[in-house]
Amino acid sequence: MYLPGLKENLLSVGQMDEHGYCLVFGEGMCRVFDSPSMDYLITKVEMKSNRCYPVSFLAEKQLLMKTSFLQSPWIWHKRLGHLNFGGLKQLRDKEMVHGLPQLEEQSGVCEGCQFGKQHRNVFPKDQAQRASKVLELVHVDLCGPMRNESVARNRYFMLIIDDFTRMIWVYFLRNKSEAFYCFKKFKSMTELQTGHKVQCIRSDRGGEFLSTDFLEFCEANGIQRQLTMAYTPQQNGVVERKNRTVIEMAKSMLHEKGMPYFLWTEAVHTAVYLLNRCPTKALNNITPFEAYSGRKPGIAHLKVFGSLCYVHVPTELRHKLEPKSTKGVFVGYATCEKGYRVFDPVSNKLLLSRDVTFDEENAWHWTDKDGSVMTSYSIEDQVDLDLKSDSSNENSTGTPQTLDMQESTSSTPGDISSEERRTQAYDHTPLKWRRLDDVLAQCNLCIMEPEKYADAAQDESWLKAMEDELQMIEKNETWELVDRPTEKPVIGVKWVYKTKLNLDGSVQKNKARLVAKGYAQKPGLDYNETYAPVARLDTIRTLIALAAKKGWKLFQLDVKSAFLNGVLQEEVYVNQPEGFVIKGKEDKVYRLHKALYGLKQAPRAWYGEIDSYFTQCGFVKSLSEATLYTKVRGDKEILIVSIYVDDIVYTGAVKHCKKT
After folding, report:
1. Crossing angle, helix 237-256 and helix 264-275, to 10 degrees?
2. Example GO biological process term (predicted)?
């Protein structure tokens, strides 16, 4: 374009395009728009005979005012969702977008930003001084409670971080009150490992850190306390931020393989193990592991958390035709041995082994029988005894070690010993020991109780036991067969089998119990109150002592099928029991008039029935013990009865007391 009188007499079309303007040529005209969208026309110029477009700067005032408003820094700030002016400047200077004019940073206050984005004032980084040696300053914080209990019933974890090395330790707790005990373990272990003393603790004002025992312990050991101000976790930012990092890493690992959340402690333990081997901004090109131990960590042994794996079963623990390995899920690294932690979802056991083959691309299918995702396990105590050998170090040759499902209580430089085989102090959760003779005696038992109806139906004695149970229910008028309700839920039932033994160990009888699946009941719909009192141990002892002093005879009796006598106040329906569904009436269900074992309200219904019985018989209930009844006849006869669920203990100065 030819511009008479302009210092630079040519206006570059290319530069205008680069600056976001849109130029349209046609029909002898040049039209200049503010953007490619052509929303606003800035000017238009006619082509002259010399094929140039002379531009006149005589514009209408309205147009100039509108253009000025449209190019205001504040309007672009709002157009871009209240983007800060630093971001606006970056978009413009780096030419990351088209159509953004040159804007100057403003110093005013945007009310929308204040309401929507105002934060607390920044905490200067130079406020906190870094420690100059190991254990000079440790950061402590408690995280929890978690929504899901772990298999060891833990709901909290406590992180401890050494400020100088940024080494992390983790301890798992059932209650906050265990924090003091865990800190004492940490202090003893780390001081023995490093030769340094813990000098200062920085924590929040949680009650677990302000207990009298904790304060007295710190004073006795010369440990300085640094407490954060209320609602100011930033003052303990090192461990607060690490808490978030640990949780995010644990959640990512659990989600990646679709694992149930009751394994959160294993994920947290593994996250801490890995973070100690990862870089951190606080250290200069070394990991916390190296800063603490002086050695570079090896990571060739690392595997994907939650992967399928196969644990080798030694020859001594299997028969010739049995599989050589068992399938499990990798859940972490052993801290006191050189090996891996593997969870077996089938047997609900935790295995420690070095002979493990990994399938890192696949994961366990975490569903139960009805297709729903597993969220919990019923973990039974396992005996940590090797019955095959008297050698105390047999596991070092590759035998997988079976443990109780108890989480490691710490992730410490015990990790160091698992790689470097260095001897160090390590705290084990106490195991539940048993005498070896008792264990071997249990192994010799040949009694096998069926776990499901299909197994019991193959034995006549168990069929007879189930028929006896149903006859007892029918005789007691516990239920009646009705049409399936449309507005009330129907609860399932299951058979539970138990072999009753005599004192000499011989079989007395097989007992089958029909149990309602009370865990499916909903409060307020299937039941209301569930509390039922039982006799206190002190009451039983007092009763026995009184009988001994007075010379009275003491009697005890069991009420057969006690819960079947409790009358229900609620409307409850159950399915027909497996194996005893009435032909032609398969769609019908039982309405309960009296309780079944397994119902939430069964104990309360039974107590209400037995309480009513004793009251009608003239007994007087104690004001301080709801299960203690007395009956006085004349001046010399008294009968005292105490109830513990379906067990009744009674004594007194009454002739023919047993018949009475």
Report:
1. 120
2. DNA integration
